[in-house]
Amino acid sequence: xxxxxxxxxxxxxxxxxxxxxxxxxxxxxxxxxxxxxxxxxxxxxxxxxxxxxxxxxxxxxxxxxxxxxxxxxxxxxxxxxxxxxxxxxxxxxxxxxxxxxxxxxxxxxxxxxxxxxxxxxxxxxxxxxxxxxxxxxxxxxxxxxxxxxxxxxxxxxxxxxxx
Length: 163
Prior knowledge:
By secondary structure, this protein is mainly alpha-helical. The protein contains six helices and two strands. It has helices at about 5-25, 30-35, 45-60, 80-100, 120-145, 155-160, and strands at about 105-110, 115-120. The protein has a two-stranded antiparallel ribbon. The longest helix has 25 residues, at about 120-145. About 25% of the residues are buried.
């Protein structure tokens, strides 16, 4: 795994997140909060989970002494959440841009939201969060359809590479 490939994935993640955020800005508050069956109980909760995860990985990478998984505390508006998500998305790439290539296999210590600590090489944590966000953006597509929003477009990696 080389840094250039990871930077491509970071660019893809930003692009796909911005597409998802564009969709979310078009839905009503009722659609945003509507209870649906999925990993998380609403479009809002799913978007919050993605933003929380992207933000907390930056905290782990920067060795923040008090990382915050905002899913547990966030009570802001949709627009405030979208701003956090955009900042985390670009922040991941910004961090990677200055991260030394020779440190890609250096361990990163992280905490699970429900307790416990573990370590993985940086490259694995970075790959994980890209995959994690992709997985949950796919759920967002399904949830958005369930709440009646259909103005969607492809956010596949192949689509990103073709543009």
